[in-house]
Amino acid sequence: MTSINTGADVDWDARAASFDEEPDHGLRDPKVRGAWAARLRSWLPGRAGDVLDLGCGTGSLSLLASEQGHRVTGVDLSPAMVALAREKPAGRDAVFLVGDAAAPPVGEQRFDAVLVRHVLWALPDPGRALRHWAGLLRPGGRLVLVEGVWGTTTPVGIPAERLTGLLAPIAGQMRVERLSGDPLLWGGEVTDERYAVVAVCGVSGQERGEAVAAGE
Q1: DSSP per position, 99-165
Q2: Which of 1, 23, 39, 124 is the most exposed place for a label (fewest CB within 10 A)?
Protein backbone atom coordinates (compact mmCIF):
# COMPACT_ATOMS: atom_id res chain seq x y z
CA MET A 1 0.00 0.00 0.00
CA THR A 2 1.28 3.44 -0.86
CA SER A 3 1.86 5.77 2.07
CA ILE A 4 0.74 9.40 1.94
CA ASN A 5 2.09 10.61 5.27
CA THR A 6 5.56 9.11 5.71
CA GLY A 7 7.19 12.52 5.24
CA ALA A 8 5.46 14.02 8.27
CA ASP A 9 8.22 12.89 10.64
CA VAL A 10 11.16 14.18 8.59
CA ASP A 11 13.29 16.87 10.26
CA TRP A 12 13.33 19.35 7.38
CA ASP A 13 15.33 21.91 9.37
CA ALA A 14 18.14 19.37 9.64
CA ARG A 15 17.98 18.71 5.91
CA ALA A 16 17.92 22.34 4.85
CA ALA A 17 21.70 22.80 4.52
CA SER A 18 22.04 19.92 2.04
CA PHE A 19 18.61 20.18 0.42
CA ASP A 20 19.83 21.97 -2.71
CA GLU A 21 22.40 19.26 -3.46
CA GLU A 22 19.64 17.26 -5.17
CA PRO A 23 19.55 18.35 -8.84
CA ASP A 24 15.80 19.02 -8.86
CA HIS A 25 15.95 20.93 -5.57
CA GLY A 26 18.81 23.36 -6.07
CA LEU A 27 18.46 23.62 -9.87
CA ARG A 28 22.17 24.41 -10.05
CA ASP A 29 22.64 22.65 -13.39
CA PRO A 30 21.53 25.06 -16.14
CA LYS A 31 19.90 22.21 -18.09
CA VAL A 32 17.87 21.07 -15.07
CA ARG A 33 16.94 24.65 -14.29
CA GLY A 34 15.89 25.23 -17.88
CA ALA A 35 13.75 22.09 -17.90
CA TRP A 36 11.85 23.21 -14.80
CA ALA A 37 11.51 26.74 -16.13
CA ALA A 38 9.93 25.42 -19.33
CA ARG A 39 7.48 23.24 -17.39
CA LEU A 40 6.50 26.11 -15.09
CA ARG A 41 5.90 28.34 -18.08
CA SER A 42 3.45 25.78 -19.46
CA TRP A 43 1.73 25.14 -16.11
CA LEU A 44 1.36 28.63 -14.66
CA PRO A 45 -0.89 31.35 -16.13
CA GLY A 46 0.51 33.00 -19.24
CA ARG A 47 -0.05 36.45 -17.74
CA ALA A 48 1.81 37.68 -14.67
CA GLY A 49 -0.18 36.80 -11.58
CA ASP A 50 -0.07 35.89 -7.90
CA VAL A 51 1.40 32.43 -7.22
CA LEU A 52 1.38 30.62 -3.88
CA ASP A 53 4.23 28.09 -3.63
CA LEU A 54 3.42 25.70 -0.78
CA GLY A 55 6.15 23.60 0.77
CA CYS A 56 8.52 25.87 -1.12
CA GLY A 57 11.67 24.48 0.52
CA THR A 58 14.63 26.68 -0.36
CA GLY A 59 12.59 28.60 -2.92
CA SER A 60 14.04 27.33 -6.20
CA LEU A 61 10.68 27.07 -7.98
CA SER A 62 9.53 30.33 -6.41
CA LEU A 63 12.52 32.06 -7.95
CA LEU A 64 11.80 30.58 -11.36
CA ALA A 65 8.18 31.72 -11.17
CA SER A 66 9.22 35.23 -10.14
CA GLU A 67 11.69 35.37 -13.02
CA GLN A 68 8.73 34.68 -15.31
CA GLY A 69 6.99 37.78 -13.96
CA HIS A 70 4.77 36.30 -11.26
CA ARG A 71 4.37 37.69 -7.76
CA VAL A 72 5.22 34.75 -5.51
CA THR A 73 4.42 33.92 -1.91
CA GLY A 74 6.34 30.90 -0.65
CA VAL A 75 5.33 29.00 2.48
CA ASP A 76 7.29 26.27 4.28
CA LEU A 77 7.02 24.76 7.75
CA SER A 78 10.80 24.75 8.18
CA PRO A 79 12.32 28.05 9.37
CA ALA A 80 15.72 26.89 8.10
CA MET A 81 14.31 26.30 4.60
CA VAL A 82 12.59 29.69 4.60
CA ALA A 83 15.81 31.41 5.71
CA LEU A 84 17.65 29.93 2.73
CA ALA A 85 14.79 30.82 0.37
CA ARG A 86 14.91 34.46 1.47
CA GLU A 87 18.57 34.61 0.46
CA LYS A 88 17.86 33.59 -3.15
CA PRO A 89 15.40 36.00 -4.77
CA ALA A 90 17.17 39.29 -4.08
CA GLY A 91 15.45 41.92 -6.21
CA ARG A 92 12.67 39.51 -7.19
CA ASP A 93 8.97 39.84 -6.44
CA ALA A 94 8.81 37.05 -3.86
CA VAL A 95 8.15 36.80 -0.13
CA PHE A 96 8.57 33.76 2.10
CA LEU A 97 6.58 32.81 5.19
CA VAL A 98 6.98 30.12 7.83
CA GLY A 99 3.77 28.14 8.01
CA ASP A 100 1.85 24.93 7.42
CA ALA A 101 1.34 24.12 3.73
CA ALA A 102 -2.04 22.56 4.56
CA ALA A 103 -3.26 25.84 6.07
CA PRO A 104 -0.95 28.60 4.83
CA PRO A 105 -0.89 31.91 6.76
CA VAL A 106 -2.10 34.12 3.90
CA GLY A 107 -5.31 35.51 5.42
CA GLU A 108 -7.81 36.73 2.83
CA GLN A 109 -5.28 36.94 0.00
CA ARG A 110 -6.27 35.03 -3.14
CA PHE A 111 -4.07 33.67 -5.91
CA ASP A 112 -4.08 32.90 -9.61
CA ALA A 113 -2.17 29.66 -9.04
CA VAL A 114 -1.25 27.40 -6.14
CA LEU A 115 1.97 25.49 -6.86
CA VAL A 116 2.77 22.42 -4.75
CA ARG A 117 5.67 20.03 -5.41
CA HIS A 118 6.20 16.80 -3.45
CA VAL A 119 4.13 17.93 -0.46
CA LEU A 120 0.64 16.46 -0.75
CA TRP A 121 1.86 12.89 -0.20
CA ALA A 122 3.23 13.88 3.23
CA LEU A 123 -0.02 15.39 4.55
CA PRO A 124 -2.36 13.35 6.79
CA ASP A 125 -5.53 14.48 4.94
CA PRO A 126 -4.72 15.34 1.31
CA GLY A 127 -8.36 15.74 0.32
CA ARG A 128 -8.94 18.39 2.93
CA ALA A 129 -5.75 20.21 1.90
CA LEU A 130 -6.85 20.24 -1.75
CA ARG A 131 -10.24 21.72 -0.85
CA HIS A 132 -8.55 24.42 1.22
CA TRP A 133 -6.09 25.25 -1.55
CA ALA A 134 -8.90 25.50 -4.10
CA GLY A 135 -10.54 28.03 -1.80
CA LEU A 136 -7.42 30.20 -1.99
CA LEU A 137 -7.79 30.60 -5.75
CA ARG A 138 -9.43 33.41 -7.62
CA PRO A 139 -12.16 32.34 -10.07
CA GLY A 140 -10.45 30.51 -12.89
CA GLY A 141 -7.29 29.96 -10.83
CA ARG A 142 -5.36 26.74 -11.05
CA LEU A 143 -3.79 24.10 -8.86
CA VAL A 144 -0.39 22.92 -10.11
CA LEU A 145 0.52 19.72 -8.28
CA VAL A 146 3.78 17.84 -8.84
CA GLU A 147 3.76 14.45 -7.11
CA GLY A 148 4.80 10.83 -7.54
CA VAL A 149 5.46 7.46 -5.95
CA TRP A 150 9.04 6.69 -4.91
CA GLY A 151 10.68 3.41 -3.95
CA THR A 152 9.92 -0.22 -4.77
CA THR A 153 10.13 -2.19 -1.52
CA THR A 154 8.16 0.25 0.64
CA PRO A 155 6.89 2.89 -1.79
CA VAL A 156 5.83 6.32 -0.56
CA GLY A 157 3.86 8.93 -2.41
CA ILE A 158 0.47 9.36 -4.00
CA PRO A 159 -0.44 7.77 -7.36
CA ALA A 160 -1.84 10.00 -10.10
CA GLU A 161 -5.11 8.06 -10.13
CA ARG A 162 -5.67 8.76 -6.44
CA LEU A 163 -4.86 12.44 -6.81
CA THR A 164 -7.16 12.95 -9.78
CA GLY A 165 -9.90 11.17 -7.86
CA LEU A 166 -9.51 13.61 -4.98
CA LEU A 167 -9.53 16.54 -7.41
CA ALA A 168 -12.59 15.47 -9.41
CA PRO A 169 -15.20 17.07 -7.10
CA ILE A 170 -13.16 20.28 -6.93
CA ALA A 171 -12.00 20.90 -10.47
CA GLY A 172 -13.69 18.38 -12.71
CA GLN A 173 -11.58 18.69 -15.85
CA MET A 174 -7.81 18.56 -15.46
CA ARG A 175 -4.58 17.63 -17.23
CA VAL A 176 -2.11 14.97 -16.10
CA GLU A 177 1.45 15.29 -17.38
CA ARG A 178 3.81 12.35 -16.91
CA LEU A 179 7.30 13.47 -15.89
CA SER A 180 9.26 10.24 -15.34
CA GLY A 181 10.46 10.17 -18.94
CA ASP A 182 12.19 13.56 -18.78
CA PRO A 183 15.63 13.00 -17.21
CA LEU A 184 16.51 16.70 -17.42
CA LEU A 185 14.00 17.43 -14.66
CA TRP A 186 15.71 15.09 -12.23
CA GLY A 187 19.36 15.28 -13.27
CA GLY A 188 19.27 11.72 -14.61
CA GLU A 189 17.06 8.78 -15.54
CA VAL A 190 14.32 7.76 -13.08
CA THR A 191 12.11 4.66 -13.10
CA ASP A 192 9.44 5.56 -10.54
CA GLU A 193 6.17 7.42 -11.06
CA ARG A 194 6.49 11.20 -11.33
CA TYR A 195 3.81 13.47 -12.74
CA ALA A 196 2.10 16.85 -12.61
CA VAL A 197 -1.61 17.64 -12.48
CA VAL A 198 -2.89 21.04 -13.61
CA ALA A 199 -6.50 21.68 -12.58
CA VAL A 200 -8.46 24.89 -13.12
CA CYS A 201 -11.11 25.78 -10.53
CA GLY A 202 -14.07 28.12 -10.35
CA VAL A 203 -15.11 28.23 -14.03
CA SER A 204 -17.31 26.17 -16.32
CA GLY A 205 -16.12 22.82 -17.66
CA GLN A 206 -15.62 24.23 -21.15
CA GLU A 207 -13.62 27.19 -19.82
CA ARG A 208 -11.52 24.87 -17.65
CA GLY A 209 -10.57 22.76 -20.64
CA GLU A 210 -9.75 25.78 -22.79
CA ALA A 211 -7.67 27.44 -20.06
CA VAL A 212 -5.62 24.33 -19.25
CA ALA A 213 -5.02 23.58 -22.93
CA ALA A 214 -3.93 27.15 -23.63
CA GLY A 215 -1.75 27.48 -20.55
CA GLU A 216 -3.44 30.74 -19.65
Answers
A1: --TTS-S-TT--EEEEEEES-GGGSS-HHHHHHHHHHTEEEEEEEEEEEEEE-SSS-EE--HHHHHH
A2: 1
Amino acid letter for position 90: A
Rg (CA), the chain: 16
Relative to beta strand 71-76, strand 94-98 is parallel
Q: Cα(66)–Cα(94) distance, rounded to whole angstroms?
A: 7
CB 150 within 8 A of CB 156: yes
In a structure prediction context, what are the per-residue pLDDT tens digits for the chain, which is 216 residues long? Answer: 333 344 556 787 888 888 878 888 888 999 999 999 999 999 999 999 999 999 999 999 999 999 999 999 999 999 999 999 998 866 678 999 999 999 999 999 999 999 999 999 989 999 999 999 999 999 999 999 999 998 877 889 999 999 999 999 999 689 999 999 999 999 999 999 999 999 998 754 444 344 444 444
Distance CA 91, CA 63 (A): 10
What is the rounded CA–CA span in Å between residue 73 and residue 59?
10
pTM (two decimals): 0.88
Beta-carbon neighbour count of residue 174 at 10 Å? Answer: 21
